[in-house]
Queue: 4 jobs
Job 1
Amino acid sequence: MLSILCRLVADIDTSAGVDSYIWHGHRRGIRDKQGTDTVVVDGQFLDPFAVDFLGLVNLNVDYERSSWRYMDYDQKAMPHEDLDCYKIGGANHTFCDTMDAYMIGKGGGSAYGGKWRPNPNKPQDQRYLGNPGEIKRTIMNNGDVYKTKMGPDGRAEMERHETNHNRGDKHTNPHDHRISWDNPDEHPVPGPPINYPNGAPEFKNFSEVFCMKEIIVPYGSMNFETISEFKRSINWGAEIEFEWNGAVFNIIRYGTDGKITIYAANKPETEKVCETADEALEYMVGDDRLRDIITKVHIVSRSI
């Protein structure tokens, strides 16, 4: 953290000296770690002294855009020697930006660098783990029903979506997704849709004992808190539906030509086909760029 701040202020002449301000702020952050304004950066307690410091050297600080909810961070950008990987989407990046700090270090599915576990604040994630042979039925905010089948190890192996995600040319209703766990932190990755134009087979469990557990997703619990969370969700194979200013939009990981596709519900002419989640964030949702509103839109359905 010290090296990051030194880079931010390396070209600024201060009579008090850069290091003294930084270390004072670091000590203050540890001393005030019980305060409501304290944040955690890479495992260390730190209050917003960086903002105070930048104010002391007469820099323009946008306090609202410095909020944690605007954080954006891409692990692939870490090797670069510039500050691009710390930039906040849509903010002025001239002097100061912030990062999604918990992502630094090993791992990506956990704040502690371990294996993936369902987020307790995202009830829909609970459907990916269960008892062998169990089928979980999840009801999204928009009424979509997902049925998730557990494999012999208690992890989801197949999921059925009883919806076409507002594009009958991309998905049949219903359609299935195979769930893969073959990645370093063992998070669930839904694969491309398995469509059934001639009718879907029965969605059965493998054991003789049938168990159905129902999950009703609370209103607002699927909303994205950071841009990084959105990008991670898309990269893991998500199918998302959201509302903004009275209109409905969908984003599907495996859309046209197997690429990320975003569109207004049931309006194929509005679609944009994207190579990356960052490109999808440039989509115009009415008069607003998705990057600027992704933490404000209401998510009504989200697969991961």
Note: The mean pLDDT is 74.
Job 2
Amino acid sequence: MVSTMRGAPTRRGRKQTITPATLMLVVFGFLALTFIVLMPAQAEARVLDGAGTASLENSPVEPVEPTAPSSGGQGDVSSSATSTGGGLGVPGLPVISSVVCLRQCVSSSRPTRGAIIAIRGKNLDRVTRVIFRSKSGRIATRLRTRSVGAVRVTVPKRTVRGYLSVVDSGGNRARSPREISIFPISAIPIQVFPVRGPISFGSSGSRFGAGRPGHIHQGQDVSASCGTTLVSIRKARVVYNQWDDGGGNYLVLRNIGTNTNFVYMHMLRRSPLKVGQVVGAGARIGRVGNTGRSYGCHLHFEYWIGPWQTGGKPIDPLPFLRSLLK
């Protein structure tokens, strides 16, 4: 038998303890790791403004600090610049979505030579030229107005059918989605039907002379969906643009060159036209509504010989309206 000395540690009874030296080594390692991780922030490292970028000490591009919007407050509203990962403003390419005729038109999609058109789309605020096609080549025209969403120009006199294009200050081009047909001024209609959509003349209660509480019906009701576009029948001047509890939003047009007045009632909203303004045949004047004393979406249309309500007299407009549909 082997005896053991009292007080000598045995293998089973030995305990492992952490020495001061080991503790200092652990603490030093933790501090070193923290210093490595936090060093870029403590050293005020510059950060690129954008997703997917890194804080590089020797960046291949010059970092640009984020800038506050201009004092005018129009930075993001009026500019077509797009933001990149580095915070640099890069202009967007121009895009044409549609071309609409505004003045001197056969219709909204059929301009004449000399007509004013709106080219609508995106990133058009840097456009400097609009190019039309002519028999001898291309014609560049100056702009009337310009914004991010639209450019207005006058159609040159020598323009022929073809695509039009826009060119911005960077030389980028965009072409209209379809060819633009150009018509002579003589093609502009003298008279057009006032409602641009499906209509119904209703029954006897919708007719001129039908009984009403305290008076007779002085016009013809033309039923159509609320919101349907209303247009001027012929070239006319705005005489009244007001609200009435019975007629709702109404407009009175005095037809130029004649002794007649046309009245539009129950419009969805007040017409954007101003009193004294002259509009051509087919020009938009409002939308079908149900305002005032009305019991369904429709246009109440009156045809007056002489001044409206001040010495003139109304006539049955139905035969005239039917003639415009032929």
Note: The radius of gyration is 38 Å.
Job 3
Amino acid sequence: MSDQPSQRRRTVVCIEDEPAMIDLVKLILKNRGFEVLGALGGKEGLDLIARVKPDLVLMDLMMPDMSGWDVYQQMKADEFMKSIPVIVVTAKAQNIDKVLGLHIAKVQDYITKPFSPAELLKSVNRVLDEAAQRERAGLKPDDVAAEEQES
């Protein structure tokens, strides 16, 4: 195989209650070399994250079995999952929802539906690049949040 260690396929878990949205995310990201695994709902998503420890989680907020915020809180309370970056992908386009997501909950990005393939790719690549920089610097996401609060 020609895969070099630095070219490892990055794994993304997409937690969403709409199968068509999972298929769309898979189509967009697989064409760019990502491995995309879908989970229908929050409980299935948490189980999948625990099994595969992905590089990134894309998550809807409005799901019938468990809200995206509940999934996010459980991830951040779990030693194994708390360092995994999260991008919220949701139809909740109100400014207050975005403020809550980015500044209160500290998700790495917030994308509103409908989104363009370019918008999704830009966000995914930026968040993964930032996570890699933190990892190289030996910082955890909580360390970065603490630094931002101090400034």
Note: Helices lie at 19-30, 42-52, 68-77, 95-104, 117-137, 141-150.
Job 4
Amino acid sequence: MQPIVIGTATASPGETARGVIPAGRDFDGQIEIPVIVVRGARDGAVLWIDGATHGDEAEGSITCWNLAKEVDANGLAGTLVLVPILNLAAAKNGSRGNPLDHVNYDLNRVYPGKPNGRGTERLAWAYYQEFAPKADIIISLHSGGSVAYMSRVIYHNDIPASLELAKAFGVGWDLIVEPAYSVDRRPATGTIEAVSGANGKPALVVELGGLSESLPDKLLQNCRYLTDGCVNLMRYLEMLPGKVERRGDIRGNKSTLRRRDHRNADNTLRRSAGRPLCLLR
């Protein structure tokens, strides 16, 4: 097994390394994306997990730090890449996007970015250059941030394996939907799951928390749920030992599907305009 290099971090088998992904310069210095690389002692998948795509969503950051503490490189097969704070400028401001970029405010709408674009586009481009060729599976952790509460939602891309990976997040993750954000954005473009799908890579956007559950106790509890889901997924991928708790049958329940006449013949749920919203498994 060879060492793996992510940005400035180089991790040999059985080691954990820390570094940054350089992403250009700002007016006051270098722009860098912190990264933690846990290189397992045995061959396996490269699982890439990020947090703080949006700077007001701390759940993903804390989950990444939990995983960095709890996953032992010597007991791991494959490689775990953790990016706790992807959008550092937004996180410093506690805002969804970079407050200095009013044109491309949302990082998860501009992938793969541009090498000579605006600040958020350049950040997306530098990040894309690292994860696109090196990651086998991408998990992007989100919440409702400062504007909403999200209750255990997983968006998957169009790669068939991504649905199975979503189910492997474990019991309690009951709402698993296709990557549709609005009636006029189908299929989704510019998102990390969309560009990963275009490259043939499965990707998930996992949502939990925000707004009413941002106080410390609930925040940490939700981060525990996210951490446990990631660990369960790693067991499913045989990256870690242990029993897999797997949700084998995902379907809408009464609270998810209130009007059965809104189903199409192919078991999709229609919006009022008649466009499928999600596929109920």
Note: The longest helix spans residues 216-236.
